[in-house]
Amino acid sequence: MNKLPANISSVADLLEDKGISWGEYQEDMPYTGFTGNEYRNQRTQANAYVRKHNPLVMFNSVADAPERLGKIKNLTLFWSDLEAKNLPQWIFITPNMTSDGHDTSVTVAGAWTRSFLEPLLTNDYFMKDTLILVTFDENHTYTRPNRVVGILLGGTVPEGAHGTTDSNYYDHYSEISTIEANWDLHTLGRYDVGANVFSLVANKTKDVVRKHPNLDGVYLNESYPGILHSKKWAPQPVPNTSLNISGRSVLPDVVKVWGSDENQKQTVYGGDLEIPSAANPPKYPSPGAHYWYIMLTELWLYLKI
């Protein structure tokens, strides 16, 4: 079962530090705060909910805190929270293994996404000051560069940007860096610090969107050993507590835990735009250093600007 130690901070810590509400909605999760590994469709026994597609429940700092677990709900409760106009500011939604295309096809995933999103796009409460990201964790063919579609929707997208394409380089850490920029949050001191902020937000926050030096060489189609790797485990690396990006410093609680001189000798994070892969693993500062890799899943990001 995927678990991250309690001394590893997450986006929940960043949001709560600035008083930003958050929540997750997971399709077919059997009940609020469920921490099990999976839950199958009780009629067909098809794969439905899986823990590995629920990012925050993997953090012990969330799973061991009842108040935080109460923010991780079945997707059906999204609609009641919407009707009550009580949605959190940051939301992470995961469809089930059929709806997300994992066990089916992109056609099924597209149909589900359309049926879910279209009614929301005419809901004034939902759309006001909202940015929606629709994306996937990976492409279908492992031998090709792992590049996935990312679609931005919502009331904050200016009319002039409708139907346009952004050719800048982003990775999944950009989802975290974008909300850090939007709400002027602290950072985790990891790959979130170097990740480009989505230009739609960066234009408002004055963040610089950097160019990738060699996009043709980016594959990201294989994981290197890490704490979440199922076959090639490696210990947790240390965040770089001295990193600062656009005036955003590392979360004080992270500095308190990891900021000693001895710990900082072992960090692999330098605020670079390029992230490691199996073909380009982290550069260790010493033989004792460790590294970190965040597994992300099919997801949607929803936030209030």
From TrEMBL:
Coiled coil: none annotated. GO terms for molecular function: hydrolase activity, acting on ester bonds. Gene3D superfamilies: Alkaline Phosphatase, subunit A (3.40.720.10). GO terms for biological process: phospholipid catabolic process. Keywords: Hydrolase. The keyword GTP-binding does not apply. The keyword Coiled coil does not apply. InterPro entries: Alkaline_phosphatase_core_sf (IPR017850), Phosphoesterase (IPR007312). This is (Perigord truffle) hypothetical protein.
